[in-house]
Recover the amino acids of this structure.
């Protein structure tokens, strides 16, 4: 249950304050150039402590490849990657040793497993997403070979919406803002919440460019369904939209249909997916993150023995998890697309014959 | 790729205008009372042609159980159920034999598989969802034994939003409306679109009551992720929200967190899921359906040989797929919850020992 | 748990005395010519009642395709096939309604599921293998397109061993005997056991010709491992050998290694598999069937309430299940090879690039 | 494809001469006492270089747990274990850099993946089995809690067969011999082959004691089928028998059936499995290992460019892989049984209700 993907399958392990976190990536085609510097650069985009808009926890997040690569190329065997935890401060958590933090998984993990790993959320910590980014970076290297690109940025913070989506701009923005004209306002909203010992939500917009027609395995491993699972499974995500998403529920069919001409679709309300299969247009989705549940304001809660307590959280936390979350969305999207590319091979007998004859 | 679920696994087969559709349901615990009348009654809720708000295609949708049941009880072996197609009018589709209908899967299936089953959308038709409802009905029978209930209704049509969510009312409403005060307005919107040869979108709200704490397998088979996959995988669905969903991205942590008292949570912004695991509160989600792509207005499109044509669709179609879609959402939710209940067994060593000792 | 295969996945359903048995075959590449007459001819090879060497139960075993085929070609959607049971004589089993037949699954199914479907073994009956043969026939059609052939025959009956392996001869033999010189003796052994109200065991030898190098997914979906699972999972099978199998455990490395020359291997002790991957030689295995547990001699057993009884079985049974079993071995081998062919696509980045560019 | 198991799922990574090998074990129930010393002791049983009967390669095989354990107990999250390689001598292999060793996977891996990791067999090396033993040790800890024991020993070396099966004796024997009276003869056979620059095959006998009735998921995840896959998938294994195995194919039904009395079965020809489900008797299997393909005698082979060469292997190798292999067989059996125990929960509705009510 700690694995994802069918043909390109990755599994992750590790807890926020354990020795290390890491992943196993199985199914990478042999002969792919594994650019370790690139993988590290992706981890650097997600790593904490880069600015006042992020948690103060500093982690080098240096990734080490343990297997599956020989002389710079993938061998077709599992690629194991490990990231050691270096900056745990478990004592920050001793005061909540037996307390369930509202909005966190503490309560549900304890009741499911009967055990309380109180150190920074243990397995449920967003720290695990570093391993996703490492796996996603390898997927991105594979997609590059096929001229497929995954881009993302922050389209909304605390209700302040981007009006333009400039993915190049997002790459250079410290908060990955898509709209330069909204960036300052969005930054201020984050800092205000931070100063108020509170947190804000945000939205990541992800686009996949260059994906071929035909990705997605109907009817129960559809491209949109699997992307929704991948994104909804991220910490703090509460909604996922494909294309026009929610808006389309309020429109007319005649407005929502994407008509077709010889040179392609006249619009992309569908977000590049029809019947769960990519149609060659940009694949577009919006991922909605709730505000970081870790806030310093006093809150009502109970202990593992169900005693009521009022407490104020300590520790180091992101005032807006969507910021670093958008890097993880990209990684997940890349992993899904790479998996679908491999699954799609063999959809037709002519393709199979061509491959073997 | 035509299967869903891990421990309770179902697979479906069949095309809109083929001989039959059906499903295989594997993993149903032995000894469950299989109430065939109940299964049929669920199919009757989804079946077409019940009113002017639905397609005119009339299908009895009579389900026959072929295996897995002996003397009224499940035997632990796969339950195969079949529904014969009786009212195909394939000739309705001969005029679009080589034409891709905008908003439909025709284009993507053809390019993925190199074959055009033009008869009513073939495999991609929402007709397949009848098989989901049959499987879901068995899941509901299992949930009933555990006092878990899955309810749903239409919370929005063409932008007209329900303000109250009365699931009992929805059951008796011909359009499954949750808000009696909005029902008429919503009905009018549907009929207006129908008379305009157009279609409208809508939203289904689904709630699961009585689910125990602990459902969901982190980190990659989370309850919210799998529900999102299940719902997004339905025909015409473009967005899925859990709990406050999109709203939570615009709120503060101090407003969004559900504080806890000895007798439970003080609110349910999370929609009953924390860290991908159920927390004992109602599990709540909203499922957004786009307008039916099948409209009678003239549209631009191309043929399988990429020639541009303008055409007007014929055939029989739902003016608002969300209506019958809400019944399918219930079925999917029931299947996911039943699967998670079975997967959750064995989460703790004490549970395993209790089972075997 | 009623499914097999990863990329070409099939599921079966049905009980010996239920309405019907059947299968779902998912993952068949689109555009394969589906020769229904050929599928039926494979079922005819397995069907019972063809001679005195088989059970007297007569079943037409007529297969009907319900989905996944349009205008004679596979569409890429699941192929559902159904075979109605026509000659159940459940009353033959009323005398063993509460009795566990020695050597049968009655005892274990009852204790696992708490339910006794006494009618001819219910789900555990070898009747289910008709569905495997139908699925296997489609796999064989796919293999034919790639010039891969699956052959088999009976190499041993009641300890009487074939010395030559003539697969053409086997096809025409009523007991699928590989060695014409042993056929009579083997037939006599079967009839003698039958007249003594007893049964005999036998061995099926299966060979796959023309498989490319590279089939098998190390380290946990190896070709030999999956073949072993597929064969050992068949009713009455108690041992599986690849290549020299048991003999190799008693030889020296210098005798057992297959040395290599420019034009290929100098021998095939390995049975065409090295490290779980096909090496281009014939893939060879031996499948050992125990004697039919259904015998008419009086036996000791107990009832579902654990009362001791001595009883003599009635009903209609094969005196040697290996005979018809060899046809099922072929089907399973074909399904495994077809699955491995599809899984193998995407093993190398150059293959992936070639496919998409 | 580097994973095994459904509910208790483990994945391994690493190459013979890479930085490290290891495994991820997912699905271990929370609250299991994780005795690290025991896990290490199991690795010590398998580790090389303990005697003249094994390879001279010395590896400490010290296992480190990276995750999934908190305060000595499993947390329900993935248990990652790592073993660093310390004694690689890759230069031993430079003379075979481009040469395919007969009987090895070199040839098939190269043709499947287009890459040659010549260092000690890379991923295909039996070194990977250390990771299996680590995972298996955790499974054994789980089985112990349920009073289930997995035992094994060597029943045959170079054709010299044990006549008694003394599992306690095997534990203390340097070659894990089951029969004290045959141990010397078996040892001599190994040393003779070693001195002749050759190798010998052998047979491991595995027995599982105390398994409850009902393990195994028919019809395609049967206990015998999955055990066959698990064992056949081990390096050098060429045949697997359950119970009387091959012998049963030559006997009569009246001899082979295990008759039943109120206190249990009168015999155990079936090896404790009927219809793919455990029947409460000892589960017994024999696993046949071919001779180590690595021998020092000159052999014919070809290079990666298909040039013929005669060469003599260097390096350090086991003269009889079955010896250390039997420890791996135990580990695999433990993993399969633990997986089946977890899968079996939920087989009946009464069991499910008991668990949740």
């Amino acid at each position: 249950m700690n694995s994802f993907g069918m043909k390109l399958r990755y599994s992750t392990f590790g807890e926020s304050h354990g020795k290390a976190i890491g992943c196993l990536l199985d199914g990478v085609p042999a002969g792919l150039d594994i650019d370790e510097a690139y993988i590290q650069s992706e981890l650097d985009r997600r790593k904490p402590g880069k600015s006042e808009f992020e948690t103060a926890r500093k982690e080098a997040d240096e990734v080490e490849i343990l297997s599956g690569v020989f002389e710079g190329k993938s061998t077709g065997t599992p690629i194991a990657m490990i990231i050691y935890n270096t900056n745990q401060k478990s004592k920050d958590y001793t005061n909540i040793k037996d307390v369930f933090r509202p909005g966190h998984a503490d309560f549900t993990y304890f009741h499911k497993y009967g055990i309380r790993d109180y150190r920074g959320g243990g397995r449920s910590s967003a720290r695990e997403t570093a391993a996703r980014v490492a796996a996603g970076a390898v997927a991105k290297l594979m997609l590059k070979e096929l001229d497929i690109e995954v881009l993302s940025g922050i389209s909304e913070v605390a209700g302040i919406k981007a009006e333009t989506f400039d993915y190049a701009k997002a790459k250079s923005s410290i908060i990955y803002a898509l709209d330069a004209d909204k960036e300052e306002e969005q930054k201020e909203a984050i800092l205000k919440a931070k100063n108020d010992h509170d947190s804000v939500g945000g939205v990541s917009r992800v686009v996949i460019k260059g994906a071929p027609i035909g990705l997605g395995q109907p009817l129960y491993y559809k491209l949109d369904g699997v992307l929704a699972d991948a994104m909804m499974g991220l910490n703090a995500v509460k909604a996922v939209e494909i294309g026009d998403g929610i808006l389309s529920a309020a429109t007319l069919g005649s407005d929502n249909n994407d008509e077709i001409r010889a040179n392609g679709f006249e619009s992309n309300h569908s977000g590049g997916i029809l019947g769960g299969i990519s149609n060659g247009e940009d694949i577009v989705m919006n991922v909605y993150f709730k505000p970081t549940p870790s806030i310093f304001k006093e809150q009502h809660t109970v202990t593992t023995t169900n005693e009521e307590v009022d407490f104020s959280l300590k520790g180091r936390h992101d005032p807006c998890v969507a910021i670093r979350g958008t890097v993880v969305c990209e990684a997940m999207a890349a992993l899904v697309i790479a998996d679908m590319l491999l699954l799609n091979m063999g959809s037709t007998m002519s393709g199979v014959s061509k491959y073997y004859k």
Notes: The CA atoms of residues 230 and 332 of chain B lie 6 Å apart. Chain B touches chain A through 107 residues (CB under 8 Å).
